[in-house]
## 1
Amino acid sequence: AQSVTQLDSQVPVFEEAPVELRCNYSSSVSVYLFWYVQYPNQGLQLLLKYLSGSTLVKGINGFEAEFNKSQTSFHLRKPSVHISDTAEYFCAVTGTGFQKLVFGTGTRLLVSP
Amino acid sequence: DAGVIQSPRHEVTEMGQEVTLRCKPISGHDYLFWYRQTMMRGLELLIYFNNNVPIDDSGMPEDRFSAKMPNASFSTLKIQPSEPRDSAVYFCASSLASGSLGTGELFFGEGSRLTVL
């Protein structure tokens, strides 16, 4: 079985500053990793995913994440955030032999002027 | 292609009433999931189906909750009788997880916001 830990429940940051949202996972098998974003009063939408290949993956809205197998991490980064990035971000993992997608508890990103 | 479609978007009902939430997954997807989201408990997986068959319903809170998937294009989540603590946003999601194109990526609907008075 897989599990995901998002240590930061909330990350406040100023506009145009860089941000990193942390995600660590646990699994005994190879994994697929995902970051989802949820804007207020909306469903979750995919930000980016790691399936295989390059460990640095780029997503929508200027976000990127790096898969680090030795540290079992998949941290999300953006070099310069905007007010519109204020949202909740969820990290998720599944085994490549498909089991259900396991979500972290989410990190609320608060961008202020 | 249309995304996952959920109805109703908002439902307000009184305690004891029956509630039915509906979901139309993306055509061709072989997995369907029902999640519940609350401030206190976050995102909880209630049940999921593979090819219309329930695979894991261990997240269903109690017998008042039931879910069906009579065909590949429709699923329902029913609460009978409803209670105030059932107030939450209920999400349906679908994915293509089998075969060479399967990745397990979930596509979510907009959610159904349920308020039980």
## 2
Amino acid sequence: GAVVSQHPSWVICKSGTSVKIECRSLDFQATTMFWYRQFPKQSLMLMATSNEGSKATYEQGVEKDKFLINHASLTLSTLTVTSAHPEDSSFYICSASGQHEQYFGPGTRLTVT
Amino acid sequence: RKEVEQDPGPFNVPEGATVAFNCTYSNSASQSFFWYRQDCRKEPKLLMSVYSSGNEDGRFTAQLNRASQYISLLIRDSKLSDSATYLCVVTPLTGFNKFYFGSGTKLNVKP
């Protein structure tokens, strides 16, 4: 089946720094990718829809200036958490729309100290 | 009001038991429905789609009730390996657009 990768799989950073997470569709082209965040014991919350070649669409309550999304090619979307704070510590998962379903990446665990 | 609501559980059942989960959704225009399974600290994996006519895949049966706006998942003959969190997913449009996840129902199958 289709594969979506994320990099890094986990990252620890200091408060105030920025972290970039990559999401790649490995064997198909994805014009649309999605970014989710999941806090412990909670469900996945859609943060934004990433569209190749255009601006991302953010869900209500998600700060677009804090979570920068770039979808520069049909196989790559990046999420940059700017000026990260401990409350941004979470599991970030991307997904890409394939022909028949959405395919999820393995997730990136971010810890901000 | 949340788009999708689920009983968080946990449901603790013995091996071989039959267990059922329900999920309600708020948007009557929702058109696509899925059950995903998520293991601890892993990404969600598609378990099955849910069709208006209902569908069955081995020990798993999913049903949709549009009038009452809920979907259900029935697991028969539970296995230890079924222990996971089951996520209900609803999309407002066909074509795998935005996914709205329920909070998940945790299942623990005991020996």
## 3
Amino acid sequence: QVHLVESGGGLVKPGGSLRLSCAASGFTFSDYYMTWIRQAPGKGLEWLSYISSTSTYTNYVDSVKGRFTISRDNAKNSLYLQMNSLRAEDTAVYYCARDTAVSYWGQGTLVTVSS
Amino acid sequence: DIQMTQSPSAMSASVGDTVTITCRASQDISNYLAWFRQEPGKVPKRLIYAASSLESGVPSRFSGGGSGTQFTLTITSLQPEDLATYYCLQHYTYPYTFGQGTKLEI
């Protein structure tokens, strides 16, 4: 059974940094592209970034390009999102998801950017 | 970027009704479209992939159609648990983009 568990969310001041993690189990992690998606409070879903199975390819939405970095460690079955220069508008629940068609979602981790 | 426009943004229906939600892409995305349902306070769940393929375990009263730029999600025999917000996602070209959501009230 596919299981994705995010961690690392919390309260951070504007301009600060945070690193999110996603622990994967129940499938061969190294076979799949992985994705980060977020949802601001009361708002819709926003696709953020993807990383290919061997980390060769990554892509980002413009709103986070240059500030966020996606990475993975296939030996640890883990996906990461390094978030720098955080802004109030980055406040959201952050989900990791499997593959580019988003077949499975984690339960999400809340990031709050506030002074 | 490809824009995904969902309509309607909100709708009200009754148990037993049939409803259709439309998603229009700003350019051709072939069939690289998925539909998701997000119940209040819960994690989104995929219902349909490749525009018309039903996810395993999803009731057959959900169906998807379309290709190119126009797509539909149809729900027949509405049930109370269908109260949710529905989203489409194009995964044809980066950055991938979601529709703005359709809130369905029963």
## 4
Amino acid sequence: ETGVTQSPTHLIKTRGQQVTLRCSSQSGHNTVSWYQQALGQGPQFIFQYYREEENGRGNFPPRFSGLQFPNYSSELNVNALELDDSALYLCASSLDVGGPYEQYFGPGTRLTVT
Amino acid sequence: TQLLEQSPQFLSIQEGENLTVYCNSSSVFSSLQWYRQEPGEGPVLLVTVVTGGEVKKLKRLTFQFGDARKDSSLHITAAQPGDTGLYLCAGAAGAQKLVFGQGTRLTINP
């Protein structure tokens, strides 16, 4: 069974640029959620995709957008990067949207905005 | 807004000691998970508790879900240096998301 993978591992961008982060879900999982984890904090929910449709969104501005593909892999896009976007971005996959909502996380992408 | 408060935020103890980490909220959660996160890695799921009052044991770790499903605790017996890490509790807030606490950074000194 293949776990959740994310790419790239690290990324450095300049304020105002755009970035795309990628996630491959665990085999058999059809739901992907994205989280932002600032240094010293717990992860914050950005949004979730279920069968290629957005299925819920946290308190993040529209410049955070996403996609899910037919193979259930996913992308997180962030436009007009700001310094506060520097964080660890985590992707988590789960099977369907039913309980108990166990999510399995990838290793994350560390984004630094300068 | 559903919030989870973890305490303590930092804990440093000697090998062999016992410890308890608390996760509290004013909101009811349908389930609660505990994760452990190592530096540079994603959180790894330790346990899920679903029923109020439920107790689950994972070797030296004991997890309890409060009767009202608003709080949880993690107790570690005879802590070992390998237990060092960031422990996160997360409540299921509807079908879409997990609400995480801010984490407890645990250091076990040999």
